[in-house]
Amino acid sequence: MKYTYYGQSCFLLETSSAKLLFDPFISGNPLAKDIDVAQIEADYILVSHGHGDHVADLVAIAKRTNAKVICMPEIAGWLQKQGVTNIHDMNIGKFKFDFGTVRMVAATHSSSLPDGSYGGNPAGFVLDADGRQIYFAGDTGLTLEMKLLAELYQLEYAIFPIGGNYTMDADDAAIAADYVNCQKVIGVHYDSFPVIAIDKYTAGEVFKRAQKQLLLPAIGETIVLS
Question: Which of 94, 145, 146, 191 could make a disulfide contact with 103, Cβ separation 3.0–4.6 Å?
Fold first, then answer.
């Protein structure tokens, strides 16, 4: 499985049978100015919540690729008004797709859409595909509900926000890694705005002390999830 980072919380997971794009926000992120949005391909787009820094490029990419959008019902309703029709709406629960199983899980955050309408519950996703189990927490603070995932899954990777202010910071994310019993964490949701800027060295040291591995791929970089 491959992971490509596009900045903020946008990334692509490539399984053996599908390309899964998460939270497409690229064109509004100055740090991702070298990413050509028109070249990004996707079979599915998974949307954690409705804030602009997670959906800014959603409609354009969904229409161009005809990717199936997996999202909350409220986001699905908003998408239909934008002319997007290939949608699988779900809520906290799980569903088996052709590439594997997706469980939508709760996140402690908020959610509204670009037009100001309610975006439903914020969420994260656990992907079970190709014999691997990966957790994307979405925008969330630290919550004890994460401990349940350690009982349900053997997570190989956790994709956590680490920028603080709106979400967990590195300290909280290291605790969350313990909660979900995962050794490898990929950091997202940092540096795009001054209020969520981080010191990467300090963040890495936090994870070293916790005996966890923090991965921070550069924007545009692809890594193999081995």
Answer: 94
